[in-house]
Amino acid sequence: MSFNNLDQLYRSVIMDHYKKPRNKGSLEENSVTIDMNNPTCGDRIHLTLKINNGIVEDAKFDGEGCSISMSSASMMTDIIKGKKVEEALELADIFSKMMLGEDYDDKYDLGDVEALQGVSKFPARIKCATLAWKAMEKGVKEESK
Question: By residue range, what is the domain housing residue 43?
Fold first, then answer.
């Protein structure tokens, strides 16, 4: 597949998550709630996580922001559901390295998350892409205290 075709595929995956977000909403009972924003661009996220016995059983988000920010939140909630907290944190670390253009461990199938790789070429957009991931890290760390 040529670079242009791959780039177009990634764009369509991002737009699909933006227009039809997965896990949009909020969890009520026994959930961890995290609100974060990116003051430089106005993106904001309200993330709720249901964590039981060290497993992220469910994850939902709400918020406002650009296509990168909201599609990243959709992808992140999809990939961490059912994972152990340690695995969710590993995924956040891998995602952070991907955004910085660093080598990362490919032990996980990142699925749609890989579509965000191109964001690393646009430093101003990295904070948009990582907002939901930072919120998740904060939430699982607070939960484990």
Answer: 3-143
CATH number at residue 51: 3.90.1010.10
The number of distinct structural domains making up the chain is 1
Question: How much is the mean pLDDT over the chain?
Answer: 92
Cβ distance 49 to 36 under 8 Å?
no
The pTM (predicted TM-score) of the whole model is 0.93
- Please write the tens of the pLDDT for every residue from 104-128: 888 899 999 999 999 998 999 999 9
C-alpha separations of 77 from 40, 46, 91, 111, 123 in Å = 23, 12, 11, 12, 23
Q: Are 47 and 134 in contact (CB under 8 A)?
A: no
